[in-house]
# Entry
Amino acid sequence: MAPETDTGKTTTQDIEKKAADFRKTFTRLREEIMKQIVGYEEVVELVLISLFCRGHVLLEGVPGLGKTLLVRSLAEAVNSTFTRIQFTPDLMPADIIGTTVVVESERGEKLFRFQQGPIFNNIILADEINRATPKTQSALLEAMQEGHVSVGGVTHVLQQPFYVLGTQNPIEMEGTYPLPEAQIDRFFFKLNVEFLGEDELVEIMDRTTRGKIPTLEHVVEAQEIVELQQFIRNVEIADHVKRYAARLVLATHPELEGVDLAKQYIRYGASPRGVQSLILGGKVKALLTDRFHVSTEDIRAVAKPSLRHRILLNFEGEAEGITSDQIVDRVLEAVPETPA
# Structure
């Protein structure tokens, strides 16, 4: 791309500087968060990738693994507004979105005024999202998809960046309402937070039982996040890489071009949102490795978090203990990077 400064167009130097700024911001955010988080380097990176892609993340793991701390650490590192919503069975949509209340003016007149709910923040922790009823879940997920909420016939636009991180416990079934497939599909990534090893547990003990827990600094402004989100969408991607991502998604559909495991164990494959996650996540991966174009390796690197929650197993798959990650692994093995 040749410089065109006389016409006001973006030059190669501008793009290179913006890419360098992005890598610097991403690295600083990751390092700041890791001051409080032990292990989970990959989880932290994928959480940040989703943030810069304007996506949302579902964190799944048993209690006590630091999911809430991770979100709080992110909120501290970004100079933005943050709120935590504890999802419970009695939580109502108005408790999230807000409601219209009657107020009295200085002249004694009765007026209706919209009282904003906690969703009107930049970073939202939806803690134990599967404990709320489907009606309440859908209120949050609608805002995630549309970027605005409507109350009393009036549309209220949510401030940007708007980033929702939901958590859920995979082993707790009583008193929970699993997210329907159409709603869980709205999460950009689903990340499995696994249990830590011995060294990491010792490090946690040292950090939390001796001395002070480190405090984090703001390393990036909310407006910078918004600008970088737009920049990422301008990263180039070749047609053969886009088609590779499309073939990966098609391979999860048993009625189309599904691989052997898909045809045997999948009831329904990944949606078009899965392709969007692959492409945008791949763009961030490319920038992090100092490239301005997406490769098939970038697509493969984000395949599991992009597709695992978008694959619906059939009864046979669930009975035999097949996981969606196993399906994705098989898809990555079977689908060639270039068509035969």
